[in-house]
Every structure is written in C-alpha cells, then in structure tokens.
C-alpha cells in the first residue's frame, strides 16, 4: 500500500479492457466472470461501453486484480485474450475515479461560464 508524503493512503485509478478473441461479435457474457472476480475482492469499479475502471491501493494490487480478471475470462473456455491496461499513479495527492470526474466537470462549468455558454 502506498503512502503519500502527508501520510494519506495513495490510490491508483486503473482502466482496462479484456477482449476475448475468436468468440463472435458479442463478448459481454465472457466479461461477466471478470467482474465477478472484482466483486469477490471488494473492488470498487465502473463499467463503460469500452472498458472497466477501478481503484486500487497500489500498482501491485491493480495488476493482481487484472490478472485474476484475465484468468476468469480464460476459464469460460476462451482460447485467446487481449488485455489492455492504463494506470494513473499520482504520488503528490490522493486521486479517485469520482474526484477525476468532478474536476473535469468543474473545469467544463468554469469554461462555459467564462464563454457565456
């Protein structure tokens, strides 16, 4: 677990996609076991139309979660998977999925107010 210089626990935000290959055009049923694996580990996550985003206490924990999700998809009988990962590891202040979205929306509102939109 990472600790910031002010003593707060560090958080990493992770985006990943698991793409099962050779199983047809609809893959959602193959992704369900990956999400169940995350739920079993009490991982806070959000699913989008293109990826899954979650929070972890460290890069190591994030990679362990992704590895478990990756293996869960293989257990469905899929023979080939491509997994893509992005990790936001900020060490100067604590971040969260919610905080990142709130910051973006705040800047958007400020920009709209300044432009008179």
Q: What does the secondary structure layout of this molecule look like, with pairings?
A:
Blueprint: E1 12-21, H1 28-40, E2 45-47, E3 52-56, H2 59-74, E4 80-89, H3 97-115
Q: What report would you give on this structure?
A:
The protein has 117 residues and is an alpha+beta fold. The chain contains three helices and four strands, in the order βαββαβα. The chain has helices at residues 28-40, 59-74, 97-115; strands at residues 12-21, 45-47, 52-56, 80-89. Strands 2-3-1-4 form a four-stranded antiparallel beta sheet. Helix 1 (28-40) packs across helix 2 (59-74).
Task: Offer a few descriptive terms.
3 helices; alpha+beta; 117 residues; 41% helix; Alpha-Beta Plaits; 4-stranded antiparallel sheet; 4 strands
Short description:
The chain is of the alpha+beta class and 117 residues long.
C-alpha end-to-end distance: 43 Å
How big is the Rg? 17 Å
Q: By helix and strand content, what is the structural category?
A: alpha+beta
* Oligomeric state as shown: single chain
Low-confidence stretches: none
